[in-house]
Amino acid sequence: MRPHLHHTHADRAPVELESAFTVDSSRVTFGAGSLGEVGDRVASHLPDPDRAQGGRVALFTDARLRATEWYDDTLTSLRRRNLEVVVFDEVLVEPTDVSVEAAVAFARETCADAFVSLGGGSVMDTAKLANLLATHPGDLLDYVNAPLGGGRPVPGALKPHVACPTTSGTGSEVTGIAIFDLLSAHAKTGVSSARLRPTEAVVDPRTTASLPAAVVASSGLDVLCHAIESLTARPFTSRAASSPATARPASQGANPWSDLGARQAIELIGRYLRRAVADAHDDEARTQLMWAATLAGIAFGNAGVHVPHAMAYAVAGRLHDIGGDYRPVGYPQGAPLVPHGFAVAVSAPAAFRALAATAPFRHLEAARLLGGDTAGVAPGEAGDVLAETMAGLMHDVGAPNGIGGVGYTLADVPDLVKGAAPQRRLLDNAPSQVHEAELDAIFRDALRCW
User: Fold this and answer.
1) Could you say which of 44, 282, 423, 437 is the most buried, measured as most Cβ atoms within 10 Å of its Cβ?
2) Is 341 found in the same domain as 307?
3) 119 shares its domain with 160
4) What is the tens place of the pLDDT at every residue in 391-413?
């Protein structure tokens, strides 16, 4: 029998609860050709933007992007403002603590006045962490979320950071979250702080035109999960009040602001993802996906995500432990990997099915916005309808069929549970309590999506 969870956070001992929420977001510039504005936007955050020599900028990207016109456009824009540009292009598709440390060493050595990131979530997250550790002393694990790290608060402001996404997925350009693979723990983890949020985002949808279909599918499903998880997260009013109020976390739970972006993003994904995957020349579809990614980023940057993302860190991080050989077309073939969007999506239908009983109308709303038929559906069926609607979309865009589709079996479930259970920042944002027993049931249900 498939799991349906029904105990809520209200089961806990009474505490003083939140009565307010905070809206945070980067300044966003969106539109074709906007990479040409990067130099002006960086310069505007430097002490003397009009001086002849504008300062030193650390440009983070990857080797593939460095050979594209998008890199040329960005570099030209920076140099037009007389900015000295130093380039780090060794970001991995899935960053590790080792690759991040190399980026940190580069940032410390170059003593940049500002940071620019051009790439997907891996590039933007690497730049965030390099900025953090070049600006403030300490080791990476000092700032990593507990219990895997010290959970140390970011002590102060960072250098200006203009983030330029080239994939329509992570939303990292507008969030204060940076994720990487902690090799010693065989799982993904990260750092979360409002101070990590980029100063500005420059979103040029032209950059998605050359993305392979599998990359569009994976990143689009990541957007979808960002949006549905934000919409169905525990309400902000169920969280213990922060003391002081300025210590309110970025993942504060579902709130009226995050709901707006989440709803619109879900609808856009349902309308355009299939088209964007099927036709690289469908400019309208790919532009709308890029906009959906930014909207969902703003949503989960203020509400937070929950169970599917917690499970994804184990799905992606433990592939090598089982000798997995999943190598999606369109991604580097040097080593097996589960791209982040697929890693989240393969468990999402099972997670939403299990959690829907505690917020049935929100799960039904998500299914309807995604294009599912919800007419006459009873609240008790909300999870099944959302799971089936999402699974249908996954099937159509070529996503793996559950965790079994990337190589896991029933025998791997206990290890996957061990990898996901420490992700308390995410799990505690779910609309009901989720611990090892619940994770075990969801992972078992996630072996197949259809």
Assistant:
1) 423
2) yes
3) yes
4) 999 999 999 999 999 999 999 99
CA distance 93 to 169: 14
* Boundary residue ending a domain (171, 203, 235): 203
pLDDT above 70: residue 335: yes
pTM: 0.91
Which ranges of 325-410 would DSSP assign to H, the alpha helix?
340-345, 348-355, 360-370, 382-396
How far apart CA 208 and CA 272 sit, in angstroms, is 14
Could you give the number of structural domains in the chain? 2
Note the pLDDT tens digit of each residue in 427-438: 999 999 999 999
Can you give the pLDDT at residue 52? Answer: 45
d(CA 359, CA 367): 13
In a shared domain, residues 164 and 42: yes
Q: What are phi and psi of 203, to 5 degrees?
A: -110, 105
Whether residue 221 sits in one domain with residue 160: no
Do 48 and 189 fall within a single domain?
A: yes
Position 213: which residue type? Answer: A
Q: For residue 26, how many other CB atoms are within 10 A of its CB? A: 22
3-state secondary structure of 49: coil
Is pLDDT of 51 > 80?
no
In this structure, the answer to whether residues 196 and 227 fall within a common structural domain is: no
pLDDT value at position 184? 84
CA separation, residue 50 to residues 26, 37, 47, 76, 162 (Å): 23, 15, 9, 17, 18
Q: Is residue 27 part of a domain?
A: no
Residue 383's domain comprises 9-22+212-445
Q: Amino acid identity, residue 197? A: R
End-to-end CA distance of the chain, in Å? 15
Identify the residue whose tokens are 């959970």. Answer: 151
In this predicted structure, the answer to whether residue 3 has a pLDDT above a threshold of 80 is: no
